[in-house]
Specification:
mainly beta; two-stranded antiparallel ribbon
Length: 176
């Protein structure tokens, strides 16, 4: 059996949380991903000090957000987040996130397509609201340092890749 490093990382993080008596398990989605034809599901484990999130996500990026009317951009990927909760599951948190995304760039006029794996690392912060005993609303902002950010050129037209990107989100969740 071959275990990939990302699988080992996830297993190690889950084992660490279980060993430290995880008192919370939750599931979150990002509704905006579904509105944009994508998906976003995240499982969280933790206690009142730390939370680990393992998730899958993807969407078609609106041209208004990526800023290039000549390209369509889509991505899907996996990510891991580790948050420090300041002693309370609800309220402010800060954390680190790492993600690996499969990017698809399509030149609109020629329909020429290329693919790239994008790895990103960076900080995040947010605020978890307990709407009810189980329902959470979590607005957050991530800053991603994109490790592969060479520009894409298709059919002679350049799509400028960013070294740093900002990702605002609002997750809806259920705490078990």
């Amino acid at each position: 059996m071959i275990i990939k490093p990302t699988t080992m990382t996830a297993i190690g993080l889950i084992s660490c949380v279980i060993a430290n008596k995880a008192s919370a398990f939750d599931i979150e989605i990002d509704p905006s991903a579904y509105l944009l034809g994508g998906h976003s599901v995240h499982l969280g484990f933790g206690n009142d000090h730390y939370r680990i999130d393992i998730g899958t996500f993807g969407l078609k990026v609106p041209q208004a957000l990526h800023g290039d009317d000549n390209y369509d951009v889509e991505f899907s990927g996996l990510g891991v987040k580790l948050d420090y909760l300041f002693g309370h599951y609800a309220g402010w948190f800060v954390g680190l996130e790492a993600a690996s995304s499969d990017m698809t760039y399509t030149r609109i006029t020629s329909n020429e397509t290329t693919f790239r794996r994008q790895t990103s690392l960076g900080p995040r912060f947010g605020y978890r609201i307990m709407y009810s005993r189980n329902i959470t609303i979590t607005p957050w902002l991530g800053v991603a340092f994109n490790l592969e950010h060479k520009d894409v050129i298709l059919d002679g037209e350049r799509f400028e890749s960013e070294a740093v990107s900002f990702f605002p989100a609002v997750h809806l969740g259920w705490r078990f």
